[in-house]
Amino acid sequence: MPSGHKTRDVPSRYQPLVDLLATCEQEEIVLTFKAIAALIGGPLPEGAILGSGWWTRRTRQPVARWRAMGWRARAERDHLRVIFTRDAEEGRG
Question: Does 8 reside within a domain?
């Protein structure tokens, strides 16, 4: 994990998810929608469940934050989960 990353600047309820990714040492982490909802203390927005675009839009917080930390997210609606993978191009910095 790059030492210069500050995760406290994410102004949202997604902070626990961002913190989890910031401290994760694995190359991939799989979280169900239910687990993410429990982590953030409430349900995910409909767009996060119905469309994978919510997880990849760089202009959306917290997506921009985990992208900056070197993570990509891929939603699998059929399996009700999101797979977070370290970006090979950005790596651990």
Answer: no
Average pLDDT of the segment spanning 51-65: 83
Residue 82 inside a domain? The answer is yes
pTM higher than 0.90 for the full model? Answer: no
Question: Range of 52's domain?
Answer: 15-86
Q: How confident is the model at residue 82 (pLDDT cuts 50, 70, 90)?
A: very high
For residue 24, give the DSSP letter. Answer: -
Total tally of structural domains belonging to the chain: 1
Q: For residue 7, is it within any domain?
A: no
Token pair 């997506």 in the structure block, residue: 63
Confidence of residue 3 (pLDDT cuts 50, 70, 90): very low
Tell me, yes or no, whether 2 lies in a domain. Answer: no
- In angstroms, rounded to a whole number, what is the distance separating the alpha carbons of residues 50 and 61? 18
- 2-8: which pairs have CB atoms within 8 A and are 24 or more residues apart? 2/69, 2/70, 2/92, 2/93, 4/93, 5/68, 5/69, 7/65, 7/69
